[in-house]
Design brief:
By secondary structure, the chain is of the alpha+beta class. It is built from 16 helices and 14 strands. The chain has helices at 41-44, 53-57, 67-80, 86-112, 127-137, 145-161, 181-201, 203-209, 236-266, 387-396, 400-413, 423-453, 506-510, 522-527, 539-547, 552-555; strands at residues 3-8, 17-24, 27-35, 280-282, 285-287, 297-299, 302-304, 324-326, 375-377, 384-385, 473-482, 485-494, 497-504, 568-571. Helix 7 (181-201) packs antiparallel against helix 9 (236-266). Bound molecules: NI-FE active center and magnesium ion. GO terms for molecular function: ferredoxin hydrogenase activity; hydrogenase (acceptor) activity; nickel cation binding.
Amino acid sequence: MSERIVVDPVTRIEGHLRIEADFENGYITEAYSSGTGVRGIEKIVVGRDPRDIWAFVQRICGVCTTVHALASIRSVEDALDITVPRNASLIREIMNETQFVHDHVVHFYHLHALDWVDVVNALEADPEETSQIAQSISDWPKSSPGYFQGVKDKVQKLVDSGQLGIFANGYWGHEAYKLPPEVNLLAVAHYLEALDWQKNIVQIHTILGGKNPHPHYVVGGMATPIDINSDNAINAERFSHMQKLINEAFDFVEQVYIPDLLAIGSYYKDWLYGAAKPNFLSFGDFSTGDVREVEKYRMPRGAIIDGQLEDIQEVDLRDPEHVREFTDHAWYDDAEREDGDGRHPWEGKTDLNYSGPKPPFDQLDTDARYSWVKAPRYKGHAMETGPLARLMVGYASGNEEIQQVVDEALEALGVPMDALYSALGRTVARGLETRLMVRWLRDDMNALIDNIKTGDQVTFNSSKWEPNSWPDNVQGVGWMEAPRGSLGHWIEIENGKAKNYQAVVPTTWLASPKDHTGQPGPYEEALKGVPVADPEQPIEILRVIHSFDPCLACAVHLTDKEKEGTTKIRII
Ligand code: NFE
Ligand code: MG
C-alpha cells in the first residue's frame, strides 16, 4: 500500500514549494510539485510605460536579483529594434556573469551541500587529517590543522548550546550521509568561508548597477557613468577594484568550490538518482557581440529531446509551437481558452479569478488543479533547463570549452556521461559552468576596459527613447540564461503602453505541474524511483529537489499566513 509523504514548505530554497510524493516499498512512485504562493506581477505591469517595466519585474526575485530586469529591457529593445552600445552589452554580460558566480556558489554551499554533508558528524573529525585532505586536493591557503580545529570548536559550541542556529533542523546522523568526518569538517569550514566571500563579489553589481539587490538598468543601454579619469564615475580605481574581486572569485571557484564538489561527489557516485527526462532546453546567451547574434553565444542555444544528443533542435521563441504554457493543473482561470491547447506567451493570460478550490488546503487535489506554477512546454515536451541542460546542449553542439570542462570532471570522478543524468550530475554541472562563467567574467571585464581605452565611453542609445518614435502596435521577446535556466519575457506594446506581459521563467519549466496530457514536470519526473530510507526524514527528496535550485518566487511570479511555520513532514 502506498503512503503519501508531504514536504511543505521545502526549505533552503526561495519561495513556497510543496512536494507530495507517493511512496511504496521504499521508493517514490509518483510525485506532485506545487507552488503555493502567487504574486501576479505580470498583471501589474500591464498599462505601464515599457521603459519602466524592468524595475517592476526585477522584483519578481531578489535571488536572481538582476535577471528579470535584463530580460525585460531586452524584450522592449527587441520590440523597438534598439541596438545597445558595446559598453552596455559588456556591462550587462558582466552583471549576469557576476550573478551566476554568486548564485551558484551560494546554492552549492548554503542551499544544497547539507543534503550531502553531515554537519554534526564533523565533530568526529581529526583536524590533522582534514588538513592533509585539504592540501591534497587544493592550494587554498586556509588549510592548517589549527584552522580546522577552530572550525570544529565553533561547531562544538553550537551543538553544546543546543541551538544549532544556521544548522538547525537538519537530518544529522541520517544513514544517507556517506562522507567521512574529515570531509564533513572541510565542507563546513568552506560553508562558513563562502558566506563571507559571497558578500564581496556582489560589489561588482553595486559599482556597475548602483546597488545589489536589484541594480539599475535602462532601455537602450546601461545607466552606468564611465570616465576613467573622473572621481564621479566608474574610473580606473573602480575598475581595478572589480578586477581584484574577479581574481578572488576565480581563486575561490578553482581552489575551493570545484575541489570540494569533486571530493564530495566522489563519495556519492553510487547515488545517481534524480534524473528528469533527458529533454534539455537552452535559449543560449553570453554573446561576444550583440544579444541578437545567437551564433556568437558562448553558451549555445538548442533543445535536445529524449537524450538525442546528435539531433539538436532549433529554438524559436516567437514560434507558438516552441513555447506554450498550459494551466490545466494550475489555479488559473483559463475558461476563455479557445484552442484547448495552451498559449504562446504573446497570447498568454494570467487570470487569477479561478473559482475552484485553492489554498489554504489540507491536501492537494492532484487530479484537479494543484499549483500556481503554469506548465510551459517546448513542442509539447516538458523540458529540463539550467546548468545540466546548458552543458548538454553545449557539449552536443561541439563547443570545445564546454566539452573540456565536462570531460575533465567525468575523468576526475571516474564516471560516464550518463552519470550526469542525476541530482549529483546537475550539481556537478552547476559547478562546471561556474568555472566557465568566472573566466568569461574576467574576459569581459578586460574587453570592457580595452573598449573604454579606445575613447568609447558611451553606455546609452537614446535614438528610440521617445514613445512618438515607436510603432502603434509591436511585439517583442527578451531572452537570456539565468542561473536556474532559460528565461523569457514577452511584451506587446500598444500606443506606448504594455498591452500584455508574460514571463516564462526557469523554475516555471522545472517545477511545473502535469499538463493536459498528464505529462509531469521535471521535479515530478525526477522524484520517481528515488529511494527514501526514512519517510519521516526524506532527505532524498531534498537532494533531488535542491539539485534544481528552486526559486518559486520566480516560478509563479501572498504569502499564505496560515501556513507559516517550520518544515512539516506528514505521512498520510
Ligand atoms: Ni528567483 Fe530565477 C533564476 C529566474 S528562477 S531565481 O535563476 O529567472 O528559476
Ligand atoms: Mg508567467
